[in-house]
Amino acid sequence: MTTTATLEEGASAATAYAEDFEHFTAEHRGEPAFLSSLRHAAFDRFVALGFPTTDQEDWRFTNVAPIARGRFHRAAGLPKVSAEAVRQHFHPDSHRLVFLDGVFAPEFSELSALPSGVRVQSFGEVLRTEPGRLEGVFARHARFEEHPFVALSTAFASDGAVVEMARGALLEKPLQLLYLGTASETVRVSYPRNLVRAGEASQLTLIETYASLAERASWSAPVTEIWTGSGAVVDHYKLQKESTAAFHTATLQFYQERSSNLFSHSISVGGALVRNDVNAVLDGEGAECTLNGLYVLRGSQFLDNHMRVDHSKPHCSSFELFKGILDEKARAVFNGRIFVAKGAQKTDAKQSSRNLLLSRQALVNANPQLEIFADDVKCTHGSTVGQLDEEAIFYLRSRGIGEDAARSLLIYAFAADIVERLKPEALRHEVEEFLFHRLPKGEVVRQAV
């Protein structure tokens, strides 16, 4: 990713989407005025901003020129795929919405037996039948004014998930949102839009899965907005395991009210170029937010995690732990900012980025930040980048363990700190199996743990 791009080139590339936007708005003629106005404002903003370039501070390590110069096409309809190939990505014992190239696939989805007070629909269905429900909700928290990919997603949003939890509602089984890229001959782009509203004292486990059915280029640009009402508890998991030829530019936007609890875990193992923007706003006293992540990269994969946690009210807590394992010529960026507003006293915020480099060519740029305008807070941040401990390897080898197995055991132990925090057993098992297959002498590791 050494190609550079100027601000002018970024804006010029953005205008190439104007014709597609004209076709899109014609397809959605008849939408309510508020929705049409929002789409046009978002697209105009995207054109004004252009694709981000390395001249901009938030993107100085992340070159999206391969996306800006690419030719991507929205799916014209529901692609035909093998049912067996799709089912391989199902999370067992869960409610499920499935999307193929961003288009809702009802035949693979499972929403029967939803409990009282839980409403789950595709975004496209809501657009067709009750678009008024989106007024004041769609794009309320994930603002597009300063983020070109959020602006583009807002302009082209046509499918995704709308999840509404009534006060006190409980969804015992996880809800999986499964997004699959197909083996289409054209290079597809999708703009999944997920709106989740967890009402007061409700409880929800949500699993977002992004995968590919073939090793082909594609681009997914999802935006997920999760609002947690007073006392609500949301367990959120995101597993990104797309093709290593795929591009993925995602925004996760969390908004929390009083005494709510949000636990979000992000696992990234796929993609050629991945950008994750994760933003949390703690806007009610006593809110607590946990943001954890694990990324495992090799080859020429590139990943950028950009985090921002806004402590807007007093007595809130946030905890962040992101771990990266990079091999060969992989690159990663971690940019984390904790913002504490004036008056947000008794804030407790901790942020940590830890990275393990397995080759001399791998590289990580880490930039943890604190921005504090209150005087009675506990805020810490830290970042480490290192290699495997040779003494630990020697110790394991002295106990009769081969060098490859010793190295793999230490790598697994590094990742396990995150993996063990994944509450859904099937998801935890899937990530463990990935590590066993990725690591040399993985069977030895499996037996040891």
Please tell me about this protein's structure.
By secondary structure, the chain is α/β, with parallel strands linked by helices. Helices cover 24% and strands 36% of the residues. The protein contains 11 helices and 21 strands. The strands form 2 sheets. Strands 3, 4, 6, 7, 9, 10, 12, 14, 16, 18 and 20 form an 11-stranded mixed sheet that branches. Strand 1 and strand 2 form a beta hairpin. The longest helix is centred in the N-terminal third of the chain and has 17 residues. The radius of gyration is 22 Å and the shape is globular. The chain starts with 6 loop residues before the first helix and ends with a helix. The mean pLDDT is 94.
Give keywords:
single chain; 449 residues; alpha/beta; eleven-stranded mixed β-sheet; ten-stranded mixed β-sheet; 11 helices; 21 strands
Rg over alpha carbons: 22 Å
Sheet with most strands: 11 strands, mixed
User: How many runs of DSSP E, i.e. beta strands?
Assistant: 21
Distance between the termini: 37 Å
Average pLDDT works out at 94
Instruction: Give the low-pLDDT segments.
Output: none
Report the structural category: alpha/beta
Query: Which percent bin holds the helix content?
Result: 10-25%
Counting DSSP H or I runs of 4 or more residues, the number of helices is 11
From the spread of the alpha carbons, the general shape counts as: globular
How large a portion of the residues is in β-strands, by DSSP E?
35-45%
